[in-house]
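Working notes for the structural subgroup meeting. M.R. asked for a predicted model of this chain before we commit to crystallization trials. I am recording the input and output together here so anyone reviewing the notebook later can reproduce the run.

Input as submitted:
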Amino acid sequence: MVDVGAKAITQRSARAQCLVHLGAQVLSQLQGQDWQSPKGPVFQTAILAGVMGAKKTGDLIPLCHPLGLDHCHIEISVAGPEEVLIQCTASVSGKTGVEMEALTGASIAALTLYDMCKALSHDIRIVELKLMEKTGGKKDFKRT
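Returned structure, recorded in token form:
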């Protein structure tokens, strides 16, 4: 692990997003059933899983510092006729950033969407995962 002992505690945040191609067939079935799949509530389950994943990032990624997150928020929205956009924002007052927590939260939410909907179709694709912005470290980053 990187030694962060001499670093100052600062307010840090990061936002990541993941795009999931569900397909028109799956999306129409979910919208007609108030976002319920045979397994249960799709978005609510994915949101909870994403937050849980973000909180466990230090356990999942070998050299990632374990962080006690101050906040984690997952938002899921329809991004197009066949796609859903997952955004995860994480923040902490600490000596290291929360990029990995935001990325992990978004990816776990995407995997949970897949799991919740696979009975409807196996053509679901997790298309893209990327860091959108981070603040509070050596330098801020924002994808345009």
